[in-house]
Amino acid sequence: MKPFELVLVGFGHVAQRFVTLLEELREPLARDYGVTTRITGIATRRHGRAYGARGLDAVSLAEGVRHGEAVGRAGDGSSSDFIRQIAAKSAAAEESRLVVVETTTLEIGDGQPAIDHVQTSLACGAHVVTANKGPAAFAYRALAAAAVRAERRFLFEGAVMDGIPIFNLVRETLPAVTPIGFRGVVNSTTNYMLTAMEAGQSFGDALAEMQAMGVAEADASLDVDGWDAAAKTAALANVLLGASLTPHTIEREGITPATGLRAVAARKMGRRLKLVARAGREGDRITARVGPEELAEDDLLAGLEGQQNAVVFHTELLGEIAVVQRGAGLTQTAYALVADLVTIGREVTAAERSARRARPPARPGRSRGGCGRR
Amino acid sequence: MKPFELVLVGFGHVAQRFVTLLEELREPLARDYGVTTRITGIATRRHGRAYGARGLDAVSLAEGVRHGEAVGRAGDGSSSDFIRQIAAKSAAAEESRLVVVETTTLEIGDGQPAIDHVQTSLACGAHVVTANKGPAAFAYRALAAAAVRAERRFLFEGAVMDGIPIFNLVRETLPAVTPIGFRGVVNSTTNYMLTAMEAGQSFGDALAEMQAMGVAEADASLDVDGWDAAAKTAALANVLLGASLTPHTIEREGITPATGLRAVAARKMGRRLKLVARAGREGDRITARVGPEELAEDDLLAGLEGQQNAVVFHTELLGEIAVVQRGAGLTQTAYALVADLVTIGREVTAAERSARRARPPARPGRSRGGCGRR
């Protein structure tokens, strides 16, 4: 069982938690899914780069970064160059065992350089798993096509609702079901703020609390102006509805101190104000919108308190299906990367196993006990 | 692309809808999953049996059954004998392309003869998909082991929450996550009745309405005495928590006209009474219970109206994850069988494809466009 070789592009909180989570799950991943890993490259924004063909001690490096140390010297060229260099040195790319773990932060202008990282990885024979919403929100169609051409996977379960399966749910467990739309509450910071403002807290205090807890984005506009929700909506619509949206082509209204007053007034009328993300087909067009909506109290989305998230899918065949996330945090986001890695691991090891056998699936034969004898 | 050969054991409403749904989904199943099918055997309880090596016109036979016609002559021996005879005649069993679609109704005494049907199918080289809760509720461990030995699949997504993925969700999309417990509302009839009784309807009228709609089981005790919920709880606990429960070892309290009065009283206090199914680990033991519980109004389960169902999983790694079913019906249950069939189809065709190639996964090579040139 050869290990998967991982290159981490981005080494912030999510990647650091990913590294420790990989250690915590080492045994079940190897035993149940045949997935073992070696981290050979780490590219950071402000703490240099590290490469080690035999594997880096990423847990120690993460510890060091938390104390302000660098993982290595500042590198020449971009992170995409770093990916190229490692892919050129390693046999793992040819063996379909090189995986780039992309965790840079969302750049709401154009989704770069994350899109470049994904493109380069695929072109160099690496699979990519990312927690960054940008690639699926800005360039899903092109990247999905590039992945098919490269015979590699481009996965991004962590882009929406952290580790709660959304994309995997539809892809793996709902075959032949085509969602025709969805609505959801997908931004934790604004949902917490609306709940807090209903209870009398000020806009500024509620936002400050979320920032202190590390939940809110460093740039508050990403949350309160609805950009994060719009990026998630674009990713969901592009992947599930076949849309070609970007966060900029989505109708978007965020929350302000005045929204807090509306939330209080709604609550008094037995209703709840939520920042709702929605998309659906209207004839040939996909329309998508993010904005505050007043919901009846018995609406599933109305009951989401604090940081809870949910997405309700509309399907023709099965009616509505809702998935609700009731706990959120770094571990959940890091787990999404692990789940995507396992998806890749299962496929690669299954393909290798079949190739080794090089014969049709097992033949129990009719003479087995229990069939003929009764 | 060879077709899968299907043998239908049980030909009631669910199987009849399965047959038409297969037709409706013929194109996406073939195009997207490489799954084509041929129904060669049908065994019914009161309408005889049919076998046709080249495929039966199951849609017409279903139409006939609805008008009281038989599908064929009454057969000799049991349905398990019928499965054995077909497996012996067909090359599909050896090719891992024989699938028994088991839709007999739950026998709450001991889960038979459905368990026999599953055992025989696996022993004869057939995969089994079933919508019957009995096999997983009474004999999961033995049947799962038999499936491993036979190198065939035993799948039962339709046993809980119809076509909404529960078992597949945990198995396919939450690798290395071990649920430590769950609670849910899993019986549509009693949830509808509780909602109706809150609004002033009588127990008898509410039950009669569910029976008239074909939602309630023919034997009302299965619903109102909590047996259906207990069977689902056993199946969930056995599969997800590794328990060895049966519906009879689960603490169980159903609903009565008096429960309706409790529901009305609870509602007046801003609370909701629901028939809650729950299981969890207590030390080394798994405890499980079905019974009415008063829930706070903001509890996700409290908000389930009418026939809605939900299961909330508790996990150490990800906290709570809830899946909510908002539309229920025959189509959903029939879809669960289709989804399980696709799971089998994906595996078999992937294994065949890999065996044909008999070489390691594709090698994009480093000279591809986009990797080196930038």
Distance between the termini of chain A: 41 Å
Please outline the major beta sheet of chain A. Answer: 6 strands, mixed
**Secondary structure: number of strands of chain A:** 12
Q: Count of DSSP helices of chain A?
A: 13
Fraction of residues of chain A in helices?
Answer: 40-55%
Strand order of the largest sheet of chain A: 3-2-1-4-5-6
The pLDDT mean of chain A sits at 92
Radius of gyration of chain A: 22 Å
Structural class given helices, strands, pairing of chain A? alpha/beta
Q: Give the overall silhouette of chain A.
A: globular
Secondary-structure element pattern of chain A, one letter each: EHHEEHHEHEHEHEHHHHEHEEEEH
Can you tell me the residue ranges of chain A where pLDDT is under 50 for at least 5 consecutive residues? 359-366
Structure description:
The structure is a homodimer of 374-residue chains. In chain A, 41% of the residues lie in helices and 20% in strands. Chain A has 374 residues and is α/β, with parallel strands linked by helices. Chain A has a 6-stranded mixed beta sheet, sandwiched between helices. The longest helix of chain A has 28 residues. About 2% of the residues of chain A have low confidence. Chains A and B meet through helix 2, helix 4, helix 5, helix 7 and strand 12 of A and helix 2, helix 4, helix 5, helix 7 and strand 12 of B. Strand 12 of chain A pairs antiparallel with strand 12 of chain B.
Feature tags:
6-stranded mixed beta sheet; homodimer; alpha/beta
Please outline what is shown here:
Chain A has 374 residues and is α/β, with parallel strands linked by helices. Chain A has helices spanning 13-24, 26-33, 58-66, 79-89, 114-123, 134-150, 167-173, 188-198, 203-212, 220-224, 227-240, 257-268, 330-357, and strands at residues 4-9, 37-43, 49-51, 98-102, 127-130, 154-155, 179-185, 251-252, 271-282, 285-296, 309-315, 319-325.
